[in-house]
Amino acid sequence: MKPIVTRFAPSPTGALHIGGLRTALFNYVYAKQNNGKFLIRIEDTDTERSTKEFEKNILDNLTSIGLQPDEDPINQSERNAIYLKAAEKIFQSGNAYWCDCSQDELEEMRREQTAAGKKPMYDGRSRNLGLERSNKTVLRLATPENGEIIVNDLIRGEIKFNNNELDDLILLRSDGSPTYHLCNVVDDYEQKVTTVIRGEDHISNTPRQIHIQNALGYPELEYAHLPLVLGTDKKRLSKRNAATSLEEYRDKGYLDSAILNSLARLGWSQGENEVFYLDDLIKDFNIKDVQKAGAIFDITKLDWLNSQHLSKLNLDEFKDLLEPFLNNMGININDHENVDLLIDSLRTSDNNLSGIATQLFPYYKDIKDYDYDAIKKFLSNNNILHDLKEILINLEDWNEESINHLLTKYQHENNLKVPQVNQPIRIALTGKTKSPGLGLTLVIFGKKLAIKRIEELIKICDK
Ligand code: GLU
C-alpha cells in the first residue's frame, strides 16, 4: 500500500480559522497514525483576496501549535506552468474544448432553463464546434454525459453523483489563467496526496475534481468530508457567533493542548474520555468514527477542558504560562512574598489564564474597584468589620488554623452566619466576595496588608 499523504490546503484570505485548524488537525493526525506525511499547500490563486500576512499567520499558527508539515509548504501562485501543462494534456486527449459563449449568452441560457423548471447549468453547446483558442475562449472539461461518480467517503460512506447534473466546468479562463478545481487536482497529484480530508462544504466539488483526475489519468484519492463547525446558535461558526481565530483563544489564556482537545471533539469522541492530548489522538483517533452531523463549538466545553489541562501542569509549568498574562497587567509574578502559595491557591480561580491573572490582581496591586453590591449586602452593619479588625490586630500567631479558629469563635459568640463574618473581610482584601478559604487568604496577604485593607474598607463604609 502507498504511504498515506494528507494535506491542508488553506486559502490565505483570512487568519487561521478555528474550523480550518480542526481540518488541519485531522489531516495531521490521520497522516501520523498511518506513518504518513502531512503537507500544506497555500491556495493563493485568488490574488485579490489572498495576502502574505494571512499566509504567515496560518503557517505560524500551525507550526506553533504543533502541526508542522513534513515538507515545505507550496504556493499555487508560483505553479502556473504546471497547471497550464495539465490543461494542455487534457485538451490533447480530447477531454476538453474551447468555448466562446459570452456572458450574455450564458445568462440567457440560464434564464431559459430556469423558466423551463430545469437546473441552470452550461448545456455543452460549444462541445462539438471544434473552436480554436482565442482571447475570448475558455477551456471547458468535457464531462461524461451519462453514468455516475461514486465517492467512497471515509466518514459518509458511498455518495453518488449523476454525471448529467454536472456541467462542463471551466479549466482555463479566457485570460489563460487556471481555475481553482484544476489547480487543486493537479497539486494533489503532484504532492502525491492519497487522502483528502476537508470540510463538507467541498462535497459538491468532489465529483467535478474526480472528472479532472480521470481526464488526466491520475489515481483515485481517498476522501473524508468533515462535518461543519457550528456556533451554539447552530449557524456556521463565524465572527458573528464566536471568536474564530486561534490568537483570540490564546490571548484569553486557553492552552494549545486544550484548544486541540476541544477541536478534536468537534466531530469525534473517544468514548467517555474527554481529556486527551495530541499523542493520545494519534493513538486512538479513527476517522471512520467521525460524525456526519454538524459539530457545535461550545465555549463552555473549552472552558472545562482548559481547566482540566491547567490542572495537569505542575506549579512551575503553570507559573511559566501564567507569567505573560500577569506581565500584561504590569505585574511581576515574583513581586509577592508568598508567590508559590499564592499561585497554587488561585490556580483554579478561573478557567483560563487571563481570568486567573485578573483574580490575582488585588494580591499584587491596590484594589482597582470594589463590588459595591456586595458592600451593600454584607456591610450595612460595619461593626462586624471593626470587631474583626481588632481581633486580627491582636492575633500573634498569623497562621491559617489560628485565624480560622478566631473567626469561627467570633461567629458563634455573636450568633452570626459564616458569610456575615467572612465576606466583609474578603471584600476588604480583594474587592470581591470570591477568594480561597479565608484563613488561607489572610495568610497569603500577610497581617500588615490585611489590616491595612480592612481599614481602607472601613473608611469607605464610613463615608
Ligand atoms: N482551499 C480550500 C479552502 O480553503 C480547500 C480545498 C481543499 O481542501 O481541497 O477551503
What does this structure look like?
α17 packs parallel to α18 (438-445). Among the domains are: 79-226, Rossmann fold; 372-462, Orthogonal Bundle (Arc Repressor Mutant, subunit A), CATH 1.10.10. With 463 residues, the chain is mainly alpha-helical. It is built from 19 helices and twelve strands. It has a three-stranded parallel sheet. Strands 4-5-8 form a three-stranded antiparallel sheet. It has a two-stranded antiparallel ribbon with strand order 6-7. The chain is elongated. It is 47% helix and 11% strand. Bound molecules: glutamic acid (GLU).
Features:
463 residues; mainly alpha; Rossmann fold; Arc Repressor Mutant, subunit A; three-stranded parallel beta sheet; 19 helices; 47% helix; elongated; binds glutamic acid
Task: Work out the helicity level.
Answer: 40-55%
Report the strand count: 12
Instruction: From the 3D structure, determine the CATH topology of the domain at 79-226.
Output: Rossmann fold
Radius of gyration: 32 Å
Count of helical regions: 19
Strand order of the largest sheet: 1-2-3
Q: Can you list the ligands bound to this structure? A: glutamic acid
Averaged pLDDT: 96
CATH architectural type of the domain at 79-226: 3-Layer(aba) Sandwich
Cα(first) to Cα(last) distance is 81 Å
Determine and state the CATH class of the domain at 79-226. Answer: Alpha Beta
Strand fraction: 5-15%
- Low-confidence segments, ≥5 residues, pLDDT <50? none
Structural class by secondary-structure content: mainly alpha
